[in-house]
């Protein structure tokens, strides 16, 4: 784990929820979206924004080399006059938290807490690059961000430089962006782009929920039918607090259990299990022939394919 830099964190509702709570944000949580449709968003409303994770590959690099044009939508170079908060990413691995902050700082009615409220006031008037630098240099934000990254004893120092015309399927390059509606527009906030990206008019929460799935589906469609590595998180109000307000005991128990699971998983992320896994593999390998290993691998691949097929089928319902 880097001591002075930023580390990668998982695209996980529990991670992002505890992260913003540690930063002092009140009454906000993140929820996984397993289907890109309006009904899924309606079930979680009100929606403050959506975080989109995708594989940053050949197509993205091509557009980056073409004056960094957006793949979809149009730039808003007047975003400051339009009162859009936008931070560019100036350091590796910070895109998750920067995407979250871009959404939160553009949402009205959110209690950011003292630290983030002071931070937002401090950077107001800065250009996007300077805001990104200020986020990157914030010890508080970086420390909390890194507290959700998994330690690892493995460092890939021999990885060759990538040919920009290649799209390595396993290079691990993923990127987070945020979607919000503000000032009568739907905005995509991508820290690697020059400006916020406009995706048309939007006058209400209802219209945002109706239009956003089509915008994201069009973006996904540009990567081809064989690309399935996407993740969506909705930024919502705290569902536990909402259940408490109406006295729904069953929902309170369900939400409390969900948060217990989140916390347990986040605690597990703090540990490095590499040594344990290696030792287990050593022990297993002593008892298996090459043919038995091959059979186990085939079963594992088949189970993975079945899980992917189930996820796709579920998203299309």
From TrEMBL:
Care to name a GO molecular-function term for this sequence? cysteine-type deubiquitinase activity
* Annotated UCH catalytic domain residues: 5-237
Q: What is its EC number?
A: 3.4.19.12
Entry keywords, A to Z: Hydrolase, Protease, Thiol protease, Ubl conjugation pathway
Listed under catalytic activity are: Thiol-dependent hydrolysis of ester, thioester, amide, peptide and isopeptide bonds formed by the C-terminal Gly of ubiquitin (a 76-residue protein attached to proteins as an intracellular targeting signal)
Q: Which domain of life is it from?
A: Eukaryota
One GO CC annotation: cytoplasm
- Tell me which Gene Ontology terms the entry assigns under biological process: protein deubiquitination; ubiquitin-dependent protein catabolic process
Site (Transition state stabilizer) at 89
**Site residues, Important for enzyme activity:** 190
Show the active-site residues.
Answer: 95, 175
Instruction: Provide the top EC class.
Output: hydrolase
Keyword Hydrolase appears in the UniProt entry: yes
Protein family per UniProt? Belongs to the peptidase C12 family.
Entries under PANTHER family matching the protein? UBIQUITIN CARBOXYL-TERMINAL HYDROLASE (PTHR10589), UBIQUITIN CARBOXYL-TERMINAL HYDROLASE ISOZYME L5 (PTHR10589:SF16)
Protein name in UniProt: Ubiquitin carboxyl-terminal hydrolase
Native organism is [Candida] subhashii
